[in-house]
Each structure stands twice: as structure tokens, then as C-alpha cells.
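Ticket 4471: requesting a sanity check on a complex prediction with phenylalanine. Repro inputs:
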Amino acid sequence: LRAEVIAAVEKAPDLTALDEVRVGALGKKGRVTALMKSLGGMDPETRKQAGQAMNRVKDAVAQAIEARRAALEAAELNARLARERVDVTLPVRPETAGTIHPISQTWDEVVAIFAQMGFAVAEGPDIEDDFHNFTALNFPPEHPAREMHDTFFLPERPDGTRHLLRTHTSPVQVRTMRGEAPPIRILVPGRTYRSDSDMTHTPMFHQFEGLVIDRTTHMGHLKGCLSEFVEAYFEVDSVPMRFRPSFFPFTEPSAEVDIGCSRQGGELRIGAGDDWLEILGCGMVHPNVLKACGLDPEVYQGFAFGMGLERIAMLKYGIPDLRTFFESDLRWLRHYGFAA
Ligand code: PHE
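Returned C-alpha cells:
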């Protein structure tokens, strides 16, 4: 029996089979166990001798099982190490890296260009009050110009005031003039909101605003500064500019600026040409705005301008629909070279 069981132990191909052999020999109904039980019916002398012999069998079987178990476990570990080996020399799987969005790209470029002209970046809150967004900017109460902006209003507060999502970056002019003394030279990039949506309007869009206040700042400075910007941004040597008289409550005189361009076979080229494109609004800061901000219009004067970030990005990259900026479509980003 001993030889038979030990042979079976040594032939067990894996741990499960080994356990079956163990149960078959040493388990409750195992063959070795059954043999031990037979001791009960023997006379004392025979039982003593047979008992010792049987214990030796039992120990030998148990030892053989332990040895086999250790060997099988070692073999299994080796097999697993071989299976789970990592080949560090394999080439890596291709990975798609994140890339910068055209809005962020344009934002950074514009900030960099104006920084070179000595403009500091200023920012203000997206949620504004009527004073900063309208009143201090010389919008008369109940004036239709307030409606022009398709304002998103927030629910009225307990104190009766009604906040709003800023409709332009101009409120930051007010915050800056009230907060620091001239000379002022700031660029204000930021999000703006108007209740409007079509090919060229989205409820949220970006503007950047320039403001320069000093004692002798005049329209020539405004023009020089804008042409410097347009040439740097569109990367062309010279761009014709046209100042068309316009109206904004917070500037006087006010102008809209067109830049020269040409269209050949549907392709838009910025620079000399026989066509014009409107790109921004600007003007000399209105004396009423200076006064509302605590500045004496007899001493200080300055200019301001505001433009749409998406608009100039659309012109540079030939993007026809404003809404696509906010759709997060990878195919679109790839098409315009903004993603790999
Ligand atoms: N805030 C104006 C707008 O959103 C643009 C502007 C800014 C015009 C500064 C003049 C001066 O339409």
C-alpha cells in the first residue's frame, strides 16, 4: 500500500490531482485511514506492532505528499514567471497626446503680442453687476443699447440688485481705472456672454479688450498699436486699415476697424487687396467713463478697443463656423492642425 500510494503521489501532475491522492489515502475515508481503523479489532500485542508500522506508512505518505506539493508549487511559480515576463525591448504602443485648443492658442498669441508692447494682463469676474457692465460705461438707464447686448440676467438678489453675465470685457476697464492710477496699459482677455446663437454667434465667446490711459494718449497711438498688432498676429508686413465712424456709449469718437484683404477662389488673404473685413471696435474713452472711474477728463485721456477672439482665430485659420470651437470634435481639431 505504501509503495502504491507513494507512486501515485509522485505521478500527480498538478496540485489538484495531488490533493485527490491525499484525500484517497489520508482523508476520512482514505485507504490509510481505513487501515488505521482496523487496529481497533486487534489484540493488544499485535496492535502495538501494527500501530507502529501503520504510523510509519502514514508519515512516509504525508512526507511524500509534502515533497510533491513543494515541487509542484515551484514548477507553477516558474511557469508563471515565464508567462508574465515583460519584454522591455518591444516598441511602445502609439499614444495620442493632448494638444492646445485654437482658442487657447490665439489667447496666448494675442497676450504675447501685446505684452511686447508693454500691456499688462488684467482680468475681471464673469458675473458682473449693472454698474460695471453698463452704468459706469455711460449706458444711460433704459437706453436701447442695453438691449443690444442680449444680456443673460441672474435672478434678483434679496437686496433688489440683479447681476448678469458680462456682455463684454469692457467692465474690466472700469475695475482697473477705479483700482489703480494712470498711466494704465492693460489687455483684458476673457469670456463674455450674449443670448445669441448662429454661424457667427455663440452664447459664450471670448473677447480681448485694450485700455491705455495717460495724459497725452491720442488716436494716433491707438492706430499705431492696432496696426502693430494686426501685422504681428497675421504675420504680414503691412495691412491696410480703415477706421469707420461708429458708436459705443463708452467711447467718443468711436470707430470700427476694417483690415484689407483679398479673396481668391474662396481663399481669404489678409493684407493688401480690394476687400475689407471688420475686426474690432474702438475709440477714445468717453469723459463720462473717466469721471465715473474717478479720473479727471481735463487731465487724463486714453483709448480702448475690443475684439472677438474667435473671430480673429476664424480669419487666421479659415474656420467658417464659430460654433465648432465648442464642440470638442477631434476630427475638427485635426482638420485645422490642432491635434495629431
Ligand atoms: N465692448 C465693445 C463690444 O463688445 C467693444 C469695444 C471695446 C468698443 C472697447 C470700443 C472700445 O462690442
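Notes from triage: The mean pLDDT is 91. Leaving this open until the requester confirms.
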